[in-house]
Specification:
Blueprint (H helix, E strand, L loop, with lengths): L1 H13 L4 H28 L4 H28 L5 H27 L8 H26 L1 H28 L5 H4 L1
Helix pairs in contact: 2-5, 2-6, 3-6, 4-5, 5-6
């Protein structure tokens, strides 16, 4: 009987059944996209970025995100009841981005930078919202299954490295360096 109890304790720890351990694992998985984004940004900061390389990074990130959505999330989305809520949220996200772009342009014009391009700041805020939603996605997936959370985290990290690269490369093209804020 004692061996079974000991064996159960080992299984308990190995499988991560402890609620505190599962919470920490989910938290760590949720932080991975931000770490990937940071790594991509550091790569862009230290290397010369051509237009072709920037385009490849953006297309790579977009392709990976579409693959994760198509394979892992779309089957769940199609089962949503009512399905129009998902479509409404999609359009609300697009409208929010347009509003954000206009707000950035308004702030720049009031600060005397009317000629400035809003693309870098729109990308920055878009990435911030994306990383927040990635964390929610991975955290929610982890509550369903740690395997699903891990799969979602790995998919998002592989998309966030080129995303961070593209974000910082866009800032560099506009003469804004991210390095001074790191040190």
């Amino acid at each position: 009987m004692e061996q079974v109890a000991h064996r159960a304790d080992v299984d308990y720890l190995v499988l991560g059944a402890c609620p505190v351990e599962e919470y920490l694992i989910a938290l760590a998985l949720s932080a991975l996209p931000a770490i990937g984004n940071f790594i991509g940004g550091l790569i862009a900061e230290y290397y010369r970025v051509s237009t072709r390389l920037l385009s490849l990074a953006l297309h790579g990130a977009g392709g990976i995100v579409l693959a994760v959505v198509g394979v892992e999330l779309m089957p769940q989305i199609l089962q949503a009841n009512p399905p129009w809520v998902v479509i409404l949220c999609f359009f609300a996200g697009g409208a929010s981005f347009v509003a954000l772009d206009r707000a950035i342009h308004l702030v720049q014009s009031r600060l005397g930078k009317a000629q400035g391009n809003t693309a870098a700041w729109a990308i920055f805020f878009g990435v911030a919202v994306d990383l927040f939603s990635d964390g929610l996605l991975i955290g929610t997936g982890s509550t369903i299954s740690l395997g699903l959370g891990t799969l979602l985290a790995l998919g998002q990290v592989s998309a966030d490295i080129p995303e961070g690269f593209a974000t910082i490369a866009t800032f560099k093209r506009q003469g804004i360096s991210a390095l001074p804020s790191f040190w």
